[in-house]
Amino acid sequence: MIDVTIGQYLPGDSVIHKADARVKIITALLFMISVFLCRNYYTMGLVLLLSIAVTTISKIKPKIMLKGLKPIIVIVIFTTVLNLFYGSGEPLVQLGFLKITAQGINNSIFMALRIIILVIFGLILTYTTTPTALTDAMESLMKPLKLFKVDVHSIAMTMTIALRFIPTLVEEVDKIMSAQKSRGADMESGGIFKRVKAVVPVMIPLFVSSFRRANELEYAMECRCYRGGAGRTKMKIMKMSAKDYVLLILSIIYFVGIVLARIFMSKVI
Fold first, then answer.
1. Are 134 and 162 in contact (CB under 8 A)?
2. How confident is the model at residue 1 (pLDDT cuts 50, 70, 90)?
3. Residue 146 has what DSSP assignment?
4. Angle, CA 230 vertex, CA 229 and CA 231 arms, to 5°
5. Of the candidates 114, 108, 121, 11, which has an alpha carbon nearest to the alpha carbon of residue 59?
6. Burial profile 193-224: b = 16 or more Cβ within 10 angstroms, e = fewer
7. CB 54 within 8 A of CB 127
8. Is there a contact between 65 and 82 (Cβ–Cβ < 8 Å)?
9. What is the b/e burial string over 53-74, where b = at least 16 CB atoms within 10 angstroms of the residue's CB?
10. If you placed Cys at 27, which of 2, 10, 35, 251 could pair as Cys (CB 3.0 to 4.6 Å)?
11. pLDDT above 70 covers what percent of the chain?
């Protein structure tokens, strides 16, 4: 469990690392939306190849990416099995009132690929962008909401802090479970209900630890005279370079291509 890397920043000198955080957020969103626009294996294969290419360009090791995908394995398996039974047509396998069809198998494969690719794009964004850059980028992108009196700085700060503390909470869970096991707690044997019941004693100290960390963070921010985003200056001013504009244009062209491919495929079918 301690191998979970979601929310961590991995320093590097790749093109993706050096790109403007605002461009990376927009590009990641376009890529994620394109995943849901894929309706056949050709476009889904294209998106999968794109995710592998971006991972390679960002110089993120496959081992680290697999660690990031590790926490969602259970979700992928559960979703895949569930979607097996959602499909029309002639049943290939009949299990009582449940039936597995060719369409159900196709749905389960598509859903599994979608979840994995979505997580990959999200991991690339967090691996290559510092929490400070993410906060500044989200605040910049949400500036239009200030017209409606929305405190975009607080929203961006909250989202970034929540993302940053995921590895910390995972590490805390690992420590608590190790302490429980050293006292004789059995969390690995028995059925699923017994295992769920064994996790309950972990949740209480986890909540206590989380509130304590939140309180310490509050005091630390107050000691540094943090009073929100009003009147605050930036240590690093965000400026887009020519490479950032090229990356943004290429992402938009790719997204338009996926949309056109979906429209064309729907007309052909």
1. no
2. very low
3. G
4. 110
5. 11
6. eeeeebeeebeeebeebeeeeeeeeeeeeeee
7. no
8. no
9. ebbeebebeeebbebbbebeee
10. 251
11. 86
